[in-house]
# Entry
Amino acid sequence: MSKIAIINARNIFPMNGGDKIFSINLLKILSKSNEICYINIIDEDAYNDQEEAGLLSFGRIDLKVEQIRFLNTPYAILKSSLLGMPFLAARRPGKRKMKEKLNKYFSDFSPEIIIWDQIRSASYIVSFPGAKNILIEHNDESAIYRQRGASKNKFARKFYNFQANLLEQFTKKIHQEMDRVIYLNKENIRTGSSPEKYRAFPFLFTSFSHGAYQVKEENKIQLLFVGAMDWYPNRDGIKWFIENVLPLLPQNFELKIVGRDASKAFMGANFDRVSIHSDVASIEPFYLSADIFISPVFTGSGINIKILEAASYGIPIMATPFSLRGYQEVEFIPQADQANDFADIILQHAAYPKRLELNAKLNAWYSNYVCRAEASVQQFFHVN
# Structure
């Protein structure tokens, strides 16, 4: 058993995003065999009693919640807009006070390992004698900014590149403080001058609890897309699908979109055969009633955890190759990145026997994936 401090700069409830799903499972699996001090620095509402009780039920966890408002002055809002990330614009007095609190928590707990969950949490980094620092990189943040700027006009592209350069400088500085940097996807690794400290999880130790999914035999086919609608790869991808793929499918194919923070413009759009469900209490009923899960995503970073969630149900998946980046042995999942080809794979696998076949393959793949993930966990948090 090790003493591990985990610092996270987001409230992981509600679990309406892949990053939150990963973070809560990280806490769950490490607390099974380690003593955890979980320090949550949040610019959001604190946990309610039920959420706090759920976290503490995982294992030996000492929960510390600190609230700090990043954007509580016009100056902070302006600075954040220029820099691109609120955590880069946190006021210095607030940052100093938070570092002092972290030092006090570390002194009281004496961690052997300190895990900084996401780059934003590491803006408060402090060292503790004898403890190893590990950073978990969920995404390549600077690459995201360059992607967003690529399709913009010349001025906007320069502005996004300016923000990306700032993030790269910040990331490089933080990486120098770390004993290990772990990515969710090996394709995002940038090794710098110390390649031995960089790794990527071959499997995500992420599990899901829900009702049993059953393949249904019926004439109407329900397509399902799940993803945060304030995340531009999801927004752009599903818009592409609605405009280019859905019109190629027969009228008995309908699409449900489920995700947080859909814009008023998107919610108000009159899409044919499309229903949009934003900020739902539970996503489980949508998975259980769907026939095919689609992931028409072309850009982004990290790994698409919604693929793993859909696989946990066994719901047939149709995806772009980009959506499956970071996953192994998924050649059996139908893939396409052109509109006609995407429509074709859906039509080819929409029949009941084909969906049954995919369901069986996904169940077997997911079961094997979870076993291999749990077996690989501890090696990533042992630093010589």
